[in-house]
């Protein structure tokens, strides 16, 4: 009888390890609210294993050793492109963010699709895992807009300040039409400072064009690109790479007004002449924030 009890106890602890590991894997396939439900309930299970699940208090570093915020690493986990790993040498509650191989990403997406389609249910897990999952909803595929909103805000330019009225400029676009910031009051003005030799400037142009297309019939939105290059060079470039903003050539003097030295710099000015959004460099969700700010500015009285 004594030996039977010892074996039963060893079996219990072994099964507990598998339960916690399986629950951890399931957690990262579900949305944030479901993950928190799993984590909270698993922590109530009796344990001597000490298997901790990553949360907002965890220290997560990328491949360069940079410490990431919870939103940064959690977003990449949800997207299915990365995973958290730790070794016995890592301090407690510290992890490394590792990019999954194409094969691993494919497998993860496949598993997630099975959950979303209902072909693989959480109820297929052992009873202990079912209790941990509880009534948490299945993961739903985020829309592109939801994914962009979840990413960290783009870096501000330092040349403009949200909530302030910027200095005026007097410019003429490449069609000879006058562009005066004060005269554009009452319209939403979208500015882009760029130059041809700037890779991120070129990278965002297709996405900026989509924003223009979305407001093509609205005379209350003005898109103005202030380029540093000569007129002839911009004409040659845009002839091959369409850029649907109104173009201003040789715009260094305009950039100097605001002290713009980081490119691209994007700015959205509302109908009252106040800066509502500004950013520098290329971020995947910059176009999202530009368009969101345009729509909010148009809707405002």
TrEMBL record:
Does Hydrolase appear among the keywords? no
- A GO molecular-function annotation: oxidoreductase activity
Alphabetically ordered keywords of this record: Redox-active center
Q: Which CDD domains match?
A: TlpA_like_family
Identify the domain of life: Bacteria
Q: What InterPro entries is this protein classified in? A: AhpC/TSA, Thioredoxin-like_sf, Thioredoxin_CS, Thioredoxin_domain, Thioredoxin_ResA/DsbE_sf
Record keywords: Calcium included? no
UniProt-listed Pfam families: AhpC-TSA (PF00578)
State the signal peptide span.
none
Residues annotated as domain Thioredoxin: 160-299
Q: What PROSITE patterns does the record tag this protein with?
A: THIOREDOXIN_1 (PS00194), THIOREDOXIN_2 (PS51352)
Q: What is this protein called?
A: TlpA family protein disulfide reductase
Source organism:
Mucilaginibacter pallidiroseus
């Amino acid at each position: 009888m004594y030996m039977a009890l010892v074996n039963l106890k060893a079996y219990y602890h072994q099964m507990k390890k598998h339960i916690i590991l399986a629950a951890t894997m399931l957690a990262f396939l579900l949305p944030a609210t479901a993950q928190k439900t799993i984590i909270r309930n698993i922590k109530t299970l009796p344990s001597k294993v000490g298997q901790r699940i990553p949360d907002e208090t965890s220290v997560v570093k990328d491949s360069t050793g940079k410490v990431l915020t919870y939103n940064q690493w959690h977003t990449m986990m949800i997207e299915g492109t990365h995973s958290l790993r730790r070794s016995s040498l890592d301090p407690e509650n510290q992890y490394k963010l590792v990019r999954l191989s194409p094969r691993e990403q494919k497998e993860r997406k496949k598993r997630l699709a099975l959950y979303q389609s209902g072909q693989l249910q959480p109820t297929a897990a052992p009873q202990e895992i079912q209790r941990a999952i509880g009534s948490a909803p299945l993961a739903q595929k985020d829309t592109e807009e939801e994914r962009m909103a979840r990413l960290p805000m783009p870096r501000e330019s330092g040349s403009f300040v949200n909530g302030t009225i910027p200095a005026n400029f007097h410019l003429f676009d490449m069609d000879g039409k006058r562009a005066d910031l004060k005269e554009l009051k009452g319209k939403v003005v979208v500015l882009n400072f760029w130059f041809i030799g700037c890779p991120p400037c070129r990278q965002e142009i297709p996405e900026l064009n989509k924003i223009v297309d979305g407001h093509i019939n609205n005379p209350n939105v003005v898109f103005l690109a202030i380029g540093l290059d000569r007129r002839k060079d911009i004409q040659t470039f845009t002839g091959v790479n369409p850029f649907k903003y109104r173009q201003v050539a040789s715009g260094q003097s305009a950039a100097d007004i605001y002290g713009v030295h980081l490119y691209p710099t994007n700015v959205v000015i509302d109908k009252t002449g106040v800066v509502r959004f500004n950013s520098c460099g290329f971020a995947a969700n910059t176009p999202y924030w530009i368009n969101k700010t345009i729509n909010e500015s148009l809707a405002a009285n």
